[in-house]
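Input/output pair, single chain:
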Amino acid sequence: MDFQYSRATSAQDAATKRKAAKDGAFLAGGMSILPTLKLGLAEVSDLVDLSGVAALKGIKKDGNVLVIGAMTRHADVAASKDVQGAIPALAAMAKGIGDPQVRNRGTAGGSIANNDPAADYPAACLALGATIVTDSREIAADDFFKGLFETALKPGEMITAVKFPIPQAAAYVKFPNPATRFALVGVFVAKSAGGPRVAVTGAGKSGVYRAKDMEAALAKSFSAGALDAVAVDEKAMASDLHAQADYRAHMVKVIAGRAVAACG
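Output:
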């Protein structure tokens, strides 16, 4: 496959280059788009590399919000003292993504934009009530993830940062595929003044989703036992060579209980 490669020097330069392309795409860490191109599952006329845009990298605590630049690597999120102090579950989640090579290349923004149905970051965004910041607007996580590999991003729109409200408590537990470390089932639970939020990845037919029945049960009693009476619809679960729908439905409930217990 032939395509043009260019390296952006700023967010504005990246947007300009992408807009000028016939069928361009942004290149973040390359962990998703490069394998997709190699397998012939997508074609592009241009790749605009964002790795040189310093303004898209970094982590800062702004009041009760943790702001992570879109080009911040998973390894940097995992090692950040700011993340470890404010949202330990987010640092632990990043530490469990892929292998060292993936963690040192893959980026937060790239994972969120790709919205793989078994990825970890989409669950963190939903459970923590994050806001995805782009070069033109801000999008609530509840409105951002639209289905398998689908998001609210418009053509050419670029994620610049993600804002994570700091919860009272949070935990992420996943049962990973031993080869890829993607979640066969992953559950991110967060407790805040606005109430509990539970996000499930790796299990649903439509990708990441909020488990609102579990949230309602936890609002009454924030304990693992509160989930005992909650049923998980196996018809809404995915089936593949790694796990069948009934198994995933069972594991969602088990892992959700572990995540709630891990919140302390």
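The domain at 4-49 is CATH 3.30.43.10 (Uridine Diphospho-n-acetylenolpyruvylglucosamine Reductase; domain 2). The mean pLDDT is 96.
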